[in-house]
Design a protein that fits this description.
The chain is an all-alpha fold. It contains 20 helices and no strands. The N and C termini lie close together (about 10 Å).
Length: about 425
């Protein structure tokens, strides 16, 4: 089904562009009434995408919990867990610095905001994005769950990871008496992956609705107005892909070309839906087919969704400095580096869902005396940029898991295509 699903999603993407553009062109006459009609139509189309993303979120929490518990229980000792954890975090920090630095360099080379010379908005003008939800002190406390059922209900990945680590280590320590729980978790993994297969059959419909809704409401004009900014961001994302793949080749070797092929489907799902989370189940399957042991894939991937969103981090640096350029605000190199480090810290733990990056950008702008209302400059095209950075997040986490598996000496031979076909049949 994998290759056919890719074709269906691509076809749905093109159809969504055509239909959304046609609806906008047929109704938009510049009046408030037509804008209201387009918003209503876009809202109805968005229902399909919302339902699909809710179906995906329905799977995420039990899948993360079960795969992580099984993976840690099979590691057998806390030494192996600590070793994998340290190697993962080391890679995440390096990849974060690479992503943020690339955004910093490119925004100076391409200068997408220079020349706009926008007047500074009143200091009281807000972006309309709730940044109160991001509080470093509350975030640190929230990492440790007070109830596993609460975080399962709200799909809080990082607290689920914390609980799963404790549960997996405890099961490994208890030994034989915990085997019924381990087997139950393994059965839950199998069930969740089968549900994933059912849900993904609706992906093309969700992609069509998402793209059509965005074009219906925004129209093609918004893309043209901020075209150079979008083009610059995608140049950065393309370079980041090349760098991550090159680093993967340096560690994993020639098999990196196979990894790119294996993650084609999950990356396309993330791109089409503008959500990293939507691709989580498929990415986990792709890594296991590539040869990453489940105990490593199920540990590194959930951790990466909190600490290794490479595409989002590059975009946050780029967008923050673009806003400063647009308002003609000069920042010293020291200030820009301080902003980069702030983004590196505050980006950890952001959700892999649409628009999460804007919350971090808004909070960071306020700390460096840049009008937070500047976020409104990029809000109109954020969905189109979110598509690219979500796909990049998938690649970054897939490379991270593969590299850690290689360092641990556990990278196995991939499942050949004929075996995949037999499995689907």
């Amino acid at each position: 089904m994998g290759k056919r699903l890719t074709y269906y999603i691509l076809a749905a993407l093109v159809a969504g562009l055509v239909v959304g553009w046609a609806i906008n062109a047929g109704i938009d006459d510049g009046s408030a009434a037509s804008a209201e009609r387009l918003t209503a139509i876009g809202g109805w189309l968005s229902i399909v995408t919302t339902v699909f993303l809710r179906l995906i979120k329905m799977i995420i929490a039990p899948l993360v919990l079960s795969t992580l518990v099984v993976g840690i229980a099979h590691m057998g000792d806390t030494g192996a867990l600590g070793r994998v954890g340290l190697k993962s975090l080391g890679w995440f920090i390096g990849a974060s610095l690479l992503s943020l630095t690339l955004g910093l360099i490119l925004v100076h080379l391409l200068q997408p905001g220079v020349g706009l010379n926008l007047p500074l908005p009143p200091v009281t003008e807000a972006s309309g994005i709730d940044r109160a939800a991001f509080d470093p002190a509350k975030w640190v406390a929230h990492v440790v769950p007070q109830s596993i059922f609460e975080v399962l209900a709200t799909n809080e990945i990082l607290p689920i990871v914390v609980f799963s680590v404790f549960a997996g280590v405890a099961m490994a320590a208890v030994g034989e008496r915990a085997q019924p729980l381990v087997r139950a978790a393994e059965a839950l993994v199998a069930v969740m992956l089968k549900i994933t297969d059912y849900v993904m059959r609706f992906a093309p419909l969700a992609v069509f609705a998402a793209v059509a809704a965005t074009l219906t409401e925004q129209g093609p004009g918004v893309i043209l107005r901020l075209g150079y900014f979008m083009f610059s961001v995608y140049i950065g994302l393309g370079l980041l892909w090349a760098m991550l793949i090159a680093l993967g080749f340096a560690v994993v070797g020639g098999r990196m070309a196979q990894l790119v092929r294996y993650i084609r489907d999950p990356a396309l799902v993330a791109f089409s839906t503008a959500s990293s989370e939507a691709a989580f189940p498929r990415t986990l399957e792709a890594l296991e087919k590539f040869g990453v042991p489940p105990r490593i894939a199920s540990f590194v991937l959930p951790l990466g969704y909190s600490f290794n969103l490479d595409g989002s981090m590059m975009y946050m640096t780029f967008a923050s400095l673009f806003i400063a350029q647009a308002y003609g605000i000069h920042l010293s190199l020291g200030t820009e580096i301080a902003m980069l480090l702030t983004l590196m810290v505050t980006s950890k733990g952001i959700a892999g869902v649409p628009r999460a990056s804007l919350v971090v950008i808004t909070a960071t702008l306020a700390q460096f005396n840049i009008p937070e209302a500047g976020v409104l400059l990029i809000l109109a095209v954020d969905h189109f940029l979110d598509m690219g950075r979500s796909a990049t997040n998938v690649l970054g986490n897939a490379v991270a898991a593969s590299v850690v598996a290689k360092w641990e000496g556990g990278l196995r031979a991939p499942i050949p295509p004929e075996a995949e076909l037999a499995e689907v049949a």
